[in-house]
Amino acid sequence: MQWNMNAPSHPSERILLGPGPSPVPARVLQAMAAPTLGHLDPEYLAIMDETRERLRQVFQTSNDLTMAVSGTGSAGMEACVVNLIEPGDEAIVCINGVFGGRMKDVMERSGATVHAIEVPWGETFPEEMICKALEQHPKAKVLGIVHAETSTGAHQSLEGLSQHVHDAGALLLVDCVTSLGGLPVEIDAWGIDAAYSGTQKCLSCPPGLAPVTFSPRAVEKMNQRQSKVQSWYLDMSMLSSYWGEERVYHHTAPINMTYALREALKIVMEEGLDRRVARHRASHERLRSGLEAMGLSYIPNDSLTTLNAIRVPDGVDEAKVRRGLLEDYGIEIGAGLGPFKGKAWRIGLMGHGSTTRHVDLVLTALQQHLS
Ligand SMILES: *Cc1c(COP(=O)(O)O)cnc(C)c1O
Q1: For the domain with range 15-21+273-370, which CATH number is right: 3.20.20.30, 3.30.70.1020, 3.90.1150.10, 3.10.120.10?
Q2: What is the best residue among 16, 70, 74, 209 to mutate for testing ligand 1's pocket, by most ligand atoms within 8 Å of CB?
Q3: Which ligand 1 atom minimizes the distance to the CA of 150?
Q4: Is the pTM above the cut of 0.90?
């Protein structure tokens, strides 16, 4: 048998300061090591209920239809899209990076006619532009937008948006994969109808589950569907029979991942959402002043606190610097994607990774590899 002699017997303990996954606290890893229960064991059902309740707290919602779907953030995206959209529906999607583009692709695969509005990578959508798109496409049933565009570091403001979307008779769908647990995500106060996230960004859990939530307005649209949801695996009506009172088997839940998510959410609630958001802000500001003192600049005007996209200085081999950080310090940072390939570094300060210690370490490491 052939195997790769370079494969380590134990993976290294990296410092994950890229676009995700983020560092996972020992408490969460230990939670995963608990004995596997059956997916209909009363003890497991109680763990599901607790996880759901904590998800509602972190999403700041009272939405009944809130759960974690099996799969990563993209499964959450797909779950929201396939349940909300029926073949022939029109939808508007806001594209300013990779993930808006992915949402368009998923919508089209679900049979939607998608009207994309775009601003350059690194920029965000002004309210007027969204209002204009809603006027131009009055038949749109869903408007999709990314809160935290991880490919560019741009922070999209969402407050006030739902009013316009609802006035136009559409539902507001939000990608909050890189904001949930790091930035305020106020599902009810902001009038968001459907949102999805992932476990491995600001919640600091390994990848594998996707928190989702749907407003009563979204549930109403789903109840009025004429056609079956195109995905069997992600059909919310069947999933809610398992997560709800009936407890009907649908698919075997990733039991130990649920333990991990429950623990990660417990850590979030122990810290408190406000304090957690403030910590992300403080780390971002510390990093920003350190980077700017080194002559480095940010790409987006309105940067996320959870993901810092910075320009690679002219003449610097960005891949060599990243490799140096990994080899000398065990630090992972991210490269640029798409139009930013070779031109950007993406430093994630997410969840457990967002600390003074990590900020000072990555600044020291960069300083060393840039001089
Ligand atoms: C990471 C990410 C996703 C996709 O999540 P996966 O867990 O990689 O499937 C979607 N949207 C945004 C904004 C992301 O950062």
Answers
A1: 3.90.1150.10
A2: 74
A3: 15
A4: yes
